[in-house]
Amino acid sequence: MKQPSALVALVDALRALPGVGPKSAQRMAYHLMQHDREGAERLGHALLFATEHLRHCERCNTFTEARICDVCSDESRDPTLLAVVETPSDQVMLEQTMTYRGLYFVLMGRLSPLDRIGPKEIHFERLVKRATDGVVKEVVLATNFTNEGEATAHYLAQALKARGLAVTRLARGVPVGGELEYVDAGTIARAMLDRRAI
Amino acid sequence: MKQPSALVALVDALRALPGVGPKSAQRMAYHLMQHDREGAERLGHALLFATEHLRHCERCNTFTEARICDVCSDESRDPTLLAVVETPSDQVMLEQTMTYRGLYFVLMGRLSPLDRIGPKEIHFERLVKRATDGVVKEVVLATNFTNEGEATAHYLAQALKARGLAVTRLARGVPVGGELEYVDAGTIARAMLDRRAI
Ligand SMILES: [Zn+2]
Ligand SMILES: [Zn+2]
């Protein structure tokens, strides 16, 4: 007995999604075909449309439908500042803070030797070329404060400082609204070391 | 700052997948667009093809690309036996045992009042009609031995016995190869109660 080929192909194709194994691919396929054909069709079209239209901004590497993204094309921004983030969502978060009006470079990842993500995978050469355009004066490293994000920042800082750029990193410390009792000791230790005059 | 609309639409559409919230939809979209465009395209086509071609067998309710599925069309099968299973995968499992040569009805679910899955959602009326075609003599309830599967079997048994059908259930007991020391007490209790002469 064999399952219909359209179903087998769908279960198989769903495994392209990260974290989806054979069991959950099957569960997803059954769910879509049984309960949400409209959603399946919409997802199908969205995938094909995105595959066809999404590309990487030639300047900052984020996803865009144009050659150069809206942010990079915005002439009101300060071109002497370049913030380096791991993902487009990190960029969105930074933008929401309204505290930064410079430009960006999106790594689309972070260094992770165990996952075989090295400098090439985070587009290190393109970043160096972008940061040394003669206009950028300061590179703000805004990678995550995880082990991998910190290692990435460290690696980039060495390389960019060696090329004569000013390199900064987002400050670490107690979160706004944070009660010391509930903040982890490592964060408090860092906040103590980085304490500043008021 | 807004993300490109093709990306927003993709993240949104991915949420049709069961168990996928906003964060994992975004992670999936980034992964596909960054690392696996071929997989994204294949998944897109598979979804559209399945949506267009997969339907439910008019006799047994499983997924099929034809009006009547291969199993239901197989005249070498015993039409007096009808096994009721929750999903197409359960049917595949039963087929692999080579111990059953009757026909099937696939509920495409199990009763689950908390999830608002009642008799209508498991196609109860169609099952009754199918089982009372005058040819079927015995209905083998092969729903899972979970709480919901057992409740479903209980509900169906009552309704089908009231219509004069012989109703059976897969035997419960110690799994083949099972060591008593590692089998849960409930299973051993059931095996003791259902013990049989040898
Ligand atoms: Zn850009
Ligand atoms: Zn059938």
UniProtKB/TrEMBL annotation, chains A, B:
Has UniProt tagged this entry with the keyword NADP? no
Q: What keywords is this UniProt entry annotated with?
A: DNA damage, DNA recombination, DNA repair, Metal-binding, Zinc, Zinc-finger
Its domain of life reads: Bacteria
In terms of PROSITE patterns, this protein maps to: RECR, TOPRIM
What molecular function terms (GO) are annotated for this protein? Answer: DNA binding; zinc ion binding
GO BP annotation list: DNA recombination; DNA repair
Using the record's annotation, list all stretches that form the Toprim domain: 80-175
Q: What does this protein do?
A: May play a role in DNA repair. It seems to be involved in an RecBC-independent recombinational process of DNA repair. It may act with RecF and RecO.
Q: What is this protein called?
A: Recombination protein RecR
Q: Which organism is it from?
A: Trinickia symbiotica
